[in-house]
Amino acid sequence: MAADNEEHEGASVKEILIEACRRNNTELFNEVVADIKDEDELSRLLNETTTVMGNHLYHEAASRGNYEIIDLLLDQPNFECDPVNRLEGDTPLHTAIRWINSEPPPSASSATPSLI
Q1: Separation of alpha carbons 25 and 69, rounded Å
Q2: Which InterPro entries match (predicted)?
């Protein structure tokens, strides 16, 4: 995989990472991470990659409840776990809470055991 500042066809490394976080694609994420041998370069890439709306990778995963990707992100060396996004000034925790609050509550019939 080409370094992000090299000329290449198709999606950039940053775009691939964003897509992996959006789709909870752990295989794609691991493939990209495995190709980056320099720990400092990997940390820089994971911490500085943002969407056009100013969301970091962690925000993208948190906004969709993608726990598997979040777990992989938090396992990376020197990963910044509390970045602030540009639009709302939110941390990933704020974003995750927004996602949780947007999910419909479980129905009473599925949340409680049948008494009959």
Answers
A1: 7
A2: Ankyrin_rpt, Ankyrin_rpt-contain_sf
3-state class (DSSP) for residue 50 = strand
DSSP one-letter code for 106: P
Q: How many domains does the chain have?
A: 1
Residue 20: name the closest of 30, 9, 8, 10 by CA: 30
For residue 71, which phi and psi values (nearest 5 degrees)?
Answer: -60, -45
Contact 28, 19 (CB under 8 A): yes
Q: Which domain holds residue 46?
A: 13-100
Q: Confirm whether pTM is higher than 0.85.
A: no
Q: Are 54 and 63 in contact (CB under 8 A)?
A: no
* CATH number of the domain to which 21 belongs: 1.25.40.20
d(C-alpha 33, C-alpha 37), whole Å: 8
Nearest to 57 by CA among 88, 99, 15, 89: 15
CB-CB neighbours of 2 under 10 Å: 12
